[in-house]
Task: inverse folding
């Protein structure tokens, strides 16, 4: 590793961490969550980066080397469909198989009657979450895994063998990717580990959104007990993947736990009481959590403000970032707020104006990391990304 | 496929050592080595299923 590159890495890490602790670094850190944009920039199709993680990693490193960014995710496309196809996963539309090679992968939510967990199965989940996942959930979400009352098969056995080996291979590759990002371009790996909220995971992968909102009305005690049963497992998974150096945060992906997907009453009764203790436990171990608040969660800022100062980094998507800053900016670093619409369809001048407005409004005292509102896909314009980066470097120095 | 008997599974665990050790003959050597390796590799099974749920 060149000394200059390592010095650049150290400077970027200091800049990124200082901002995340709500401090004022030497300049505003740039941490763009670029997914299929990397494929477009590197000359790959969505199929190539989704199905071949070596290409996804190479595309991420090419972007990191050619843009002056402080931190990136090693592979923001993240879902490696080589792995999910080896398992026989049902809930993806895979680029190049089910959809065009030039379309990003899609999640498919089953109909209510085909939900991966039935309404009458809450007790099984509550009693033994891990056993339920292996014995009931996995056979439902996989085309190959046999249910407990079915004869086993070669496809069943191979699913576990190939899936396990593929997952190990993929996760190990992230370590090598982080080392290459550091040595090739002095770029920090932006996050480590994963968290989802109990209520979200029940909607996303078990009952479906419609099934869950019905359950909130028809069997609320079961939903609450299921959320409570998931807490220790989600906490354990989050901590087991966290950065041992406690520099970068755990990624927390927020989906449909906010108004208007659920009512304010349901947020206060189910979502927040079963998420807050997870965040507090993680913080007691010294790890920050990146709240990637997809959509608009500003109705819930008073709840998030209950968390200890510095315990989270709060990413703003479609919400009013100036309101967010006013309400929780004194406690937490913010990120995001740069319009994806402008980055895709606007002009470089419009992008620069947007960056200026956000920087002027929320970054005056530090505690801000520049990023788009949402993960950037292959509709993002290269010249606009360049304008965002160059403007922030010039204007974002403190 | 045989039905799985009811086991209390803590986070990080698929088949607890306390259950596994019942299947083994009296361990003649260092039980701690056997226990530790059982738990280390069992934890990979836990990672597998929970990452399937959360990440994929």
Result:
């Amino acid at each position: 590793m060149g000394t200059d590159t390592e010095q650049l890495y150290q400077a970027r890490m200091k800049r990124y961490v200082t901002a995340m602790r709500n401090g004022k670094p030497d300049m505003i850190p740039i941490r763009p969550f670029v997914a299929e944009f990397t494929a477009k920039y590197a000359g790959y199709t969505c199929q190539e980066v989704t199905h071949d993680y070596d290409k996804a990693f190479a595309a991420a490193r090419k972007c990191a080397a050619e843009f002056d960014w402080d931190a990136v995710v090693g592979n923001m496309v993240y879902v490696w469909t080589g792995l999910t196809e080896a398992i026989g996963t049902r809930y993806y539309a895979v680029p190049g198989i089910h959809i065009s090679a030039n379309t990003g992968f899609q999640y498919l939510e089953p109909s209510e009657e085909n939900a991966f967990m039935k309404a009458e199965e809450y007790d099984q989940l509550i009693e033994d979450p891990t056993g339920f996942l292996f014995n009931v959930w996995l056979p439902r979400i996989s085309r190959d895994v046999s249910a407990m009352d079915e004869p086993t098969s070669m496809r069943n056995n191979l699913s576990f063998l190939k899936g396990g080996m593929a997952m190990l291979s993929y996760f190990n590759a992230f370590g090598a990717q982080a080392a290459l990002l550091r040595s090739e371009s002095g770029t920090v790996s932006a996050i480590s580990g994963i968290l989802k909220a109990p209520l979200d995971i029940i909607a996303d992968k078990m009952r479906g959104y419609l099934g869950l909102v019905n359950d909130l009305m028809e069997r609320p005690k079961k939903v609450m007990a299921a959320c409570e049963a998931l807490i220790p497992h989600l906490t354990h998974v989050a901590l087991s993947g966290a950065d041992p150096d406690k520099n970068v945060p755990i990624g927390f992906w927020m989906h449909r736990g906010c108004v208007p997907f659920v009512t304010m009453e349901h947020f206060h009764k189910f979502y927040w009481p079963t998420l807050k203790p997870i965040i507090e436990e993680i913080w007691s171990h010294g790890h920050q959590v990146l709240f990637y608040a997809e959509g608009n969660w500003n109705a819930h800022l008073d709840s998030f403000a209950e968390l200890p100062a510095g315990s989270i980094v709060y990413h703003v998507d479609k919400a009013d970032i100036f309101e967010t800053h006013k309400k929780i900016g004194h406690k937490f670093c913010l990120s995001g707020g740069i319009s994806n619409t402008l980055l895709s369809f606007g002009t470089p001048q419009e992008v620069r104006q947007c960056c200026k407005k956000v920087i002027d409004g929320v970054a005056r005292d530090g505690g801000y990391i520049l990023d788009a509102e949402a993960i950037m896909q292959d509709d993002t314009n290269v010249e606009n990304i360049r304008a965002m980066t160059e403007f922030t470097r010039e204007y974002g120095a403190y | 496929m045989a039905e799985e008997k009811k086991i209390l599974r803590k986070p990080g665990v698929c088949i607890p050592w306390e259950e596994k050790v019942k299947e083994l003959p009296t361990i003649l050597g260092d039980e701690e080595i056997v226990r530790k390796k059982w738990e280390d590799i069992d934890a990979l099974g836990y990672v597998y299923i929970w990452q399937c749920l959360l990440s994929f």
Chain A has 16 helices and ten strands. The longest strand of chain A covers residues 250-254. The first helix of chain A runs from residue 3 to 20. The beta strands of chain A are 71-72, 92-93, 106-107, 188-189, 194-195, 250-254, 289-293, 312-316, 333-336, 368-369.
